[in-house]
Every structure is written in structure tokens, then in C-alpha cells.
Design goal:
By secondary structure, the protein is mostly beta strands. The chain has a single domain, classed as Metal Binding Protein, Guanine Nucleotide Exchange Factor, Chain A (Beta Complex), CATH 2.170.150. About 5% of the residues lie in helices and about 35% in strands. It contains two helices and eleven strands, in the order βββαββββββαββ. The strands form two sheets. The chain has an eight-stranded mixed sheet with strand order 6-7-8-9-4-3-10-11. It has a three-stranded antiparallel sheet with strand order 1-2-5, with no helix packed on it. β1 and β2 form a beta hairpin. It is globular and about 40 Å long. The mean pLDDT is about 90.
Length: about 170
């Protein structure tokens, strides 16, 4: 996307085999790489709780990257549009900072991590910004406002400009 592109309009590029993504003023979709699983979530208001980058060791390992870009949605506002039956879970608590179970929801066909649910965060789902179909939202409404586990950030990443920094986990 060009730096001067109009970020007030949806920009839904071809990515993987996913199709049918959409975005309105208040709601948008997130789809796995193969398109089998699609969610709808709020892009503003009560249901969109926060946006953040996490540098913790679990986020590194589960994303196969150096950090994860996330947003948290109230479960009451998260909709499964298709493919709920294609989601598989993996849970563990061994390396989770809170010491409580974190459950990961993956597409069983392509393996995309769609969201995480933590026992330490009841009523909330942690989605991945990269699954959001409207790429303009990545830079606007879903731009990370916080950065967690900065103490574990790799030296070659200077962090998210303008985001509030936390050495470890954000505390409400």
C-alpha cells in the first residue's frame, strides 16, 4: 500500500485464499489464510478493548516472529461468521506470564492463529491484527497503542512509536 493511500476507505488486498472480507465504520472481518474461518469484530466502541504489540517469549514462538501485533475484543462483541467448526485449540500455562491457562484457536486447515483466550482475562479474546482483512485498519483504528514485555524486545526493533510501554504484562 502506498504511504499516501486513502486510509479512510477499506483496502482489502488479495492475501492467501481468503475472500469475502469487509469493513464498515463500526465493524470489520478477520479471516484465516485459507478463508475457512472468518470472524467479525468491532472497530470502535465498547467491544474494542485495546490494541498492542507483545514481545513476550510465547508470542514470539506462537507467531514464529519476534513479536505479535494484537487487539483485544470483548467476547460479547466477537462473532463467528464461518468456520467455527474448523477451529482447533491448544492450551498451556507452563510459560504464560500470569501462570494461568492460555488457549489458542487455530484454523485446522491452514494453521492460522485466529485468537487467544486467557484465564487471566475472562470475557476477552486476543485477536491478531494480521488476520484483519481491511489493511487500512492495521494503520488506523488497530494501530497498537501499547507495547508489552519491552524488556524482552529484540535489539533491532525499536518498538512502536507513540505506544505506551510496559516492561511486562499490562495491568488493568
Amino acid at each position: 500500500m502506498a504511504a499516501n493511500a486513502d486510509k479512510t476507505k477499506p483496502y482489502i488486498p488479495l492475501s492467501g485464499c481468503a475472500s469475502g472480507g469487509w469493513s464498515t465504520e463500526d465493524e470489520a472481518t478477520a479471516t484465516c489464510f485459507c478463508g475457512a474461518v472468518q470472524l467479525a469484530f468491532p472497530t470502535q466502541g465498547q467491544g474494542l478493548l485495546n490494541t498492542f504489540v507483545c514481545n513476550c517469549s510465547d508470542c514470539r514462538k506462537i507467531t514464529a516472529s519476534m513479536f505479535a501485533s494484537n487487539f483485544t475484543v470483548a467476547d460479547t462483541h466477537l462473532k463467528h461468521l464461518r468456520g467455527h467448526e474448523n477451529l482447533r485449540t491448544y492450551s498451556q500455562q507452563h510459560s504464560i506470564a500470569s501462570g494461568k491457562t492460555m488457549t489458542n484457536y487455530f484454523c485446522s486447515i491452514c494453521g492460522t492463529l485466529m485468537y487467544r483466550v486467557g484465564a487471566a482475562f475472562p470475557g476477552k479474546s486476543i485477536l491478531r491484527i494480521g488476520t484483519v482483512d481491511d489493511f487500512n485498519l492495521h494503520e488506523t483504528k488497530l494501530r497498537p497503542q501499547m507495547e508489552l514485555f519491552t524488556k524482552d524486545r529484540v535489539s533491532w526493533f525499536s518498538g512502536v512509536e507513540g505506544a505506551k510501554k510496559f516492561e511486562a504484562m499490562f495491568q488493568n
